[in-house]
Amino acid sequence: MYAVYFWREIRSGDDGGDEGELEPLKLQPSAATPATWAVVLQTLAAVAVIFGASQLFVRQLDAIGPMLGLSSAVTALLLSPVATELPEIMNAVIWVRQGKTRLALANISGAMMIQATVPSGLGLLFTDWEFDGALLWAGLVTMAAVVHLLLTMRAHRLTPGRLAFAAFFYLVFAVGLVPILG
Q: What does pTM read for this prediction?
């Protein structure tokens, strides 16, 4: 789906100019076109904050998992989606309310694409993943959620309520872990 969306956006030739102006750079708020050094510095600072916060978050997952009697992988599967997607959801809500729907959709789809590839690839490379029942269950529930959303979109019946219903799959995943881990 992301590839189709990306292809259509590139082919449309529209630069998204109808979305309105973006906020000014924090380091040079009055500059119409900020200096390259300011853009690079602000980007590097943001990446450093994200890196530091992610390290703290991972350490806390490692500490919380054993306290709950769960493996690190299962703890990450339960808690990481909430922590990582909440900022994207808030950005999307704000931008949709401002009439910037294309920006919101691009933000969510880009974030999901990165999270589906980069962390998974790093996790597979640098951890000792064991494909156990919990990970199999996570994959099955994810596929069910994807099929639900694809069928809903294909039928042109996607509404906020039907989209919110997709959270039900997360609940199914969490409840299904109980017998697997028990």
A: 0.52
